[in-house]
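Let us work through a complete example step by step.
Step 1: write down the sequence.
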Amino acid sequence: MMKTLKVYKDDNYEIFGEEDQYIVKDIQEQKYYKLTATEIKNFNLKFKNREEKISSLNLFIFFIILFSLEIFNIYIILKSVVGEIDEIDFIYSLCIYLPMFIILHELGHISFFHLFDKKIDKVGFKFNYIFPSFFVRMNDTYLLSKKERLIVHS
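Step 2: predict the structure and record it as C-alpha cells.
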C-alpha cells in the first residue's frame, strides 16, 4: 500500500509527512520538529496531497546508472593496478579525474535537490584535518520523501 504524502506551507511553517509521521520546519527560526499524526490533528491545517516526483521505475533506473558508474570506476582502478596504465599517466589522470569526479558528485546533490523544489543552504570548501573537501549543506532533506532522499544523498 502506497502512503499519501501530505504537505502544508504558509509564511511561518512548512509541514511534510505521511500518515504516521510529520516534519515541521519553522521558517523564521530555521528549526525542525517531528510530530506524530495525533499531534498534527490538534492543528487545524489544510493539507494538500503531493505526488512524489520520482516513480519506482525511475528510482530503479537511477540506481542501475549509479551502479554502472561504480563498475566503470572499479574497472579504471583495476586497469591501473594491473599495470596497463603507467604510474605517471595514472597520477596525472588521477589529478584530473578526482577533482572532476568530486565536483560532479556535489553538483549531483545540488541538481537533484533543486529538482525536488528545495533550496541549498550552503555550498563550500573546507579542510578536514589535512584533507581538502567540498560539501553541500541541505537541511531541507527532512521535507522529502524516502525515495527522494535516497536520490539526493546518492
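Step 3: interpret the result. Residues 87-115 form the longest helix (29 residues).
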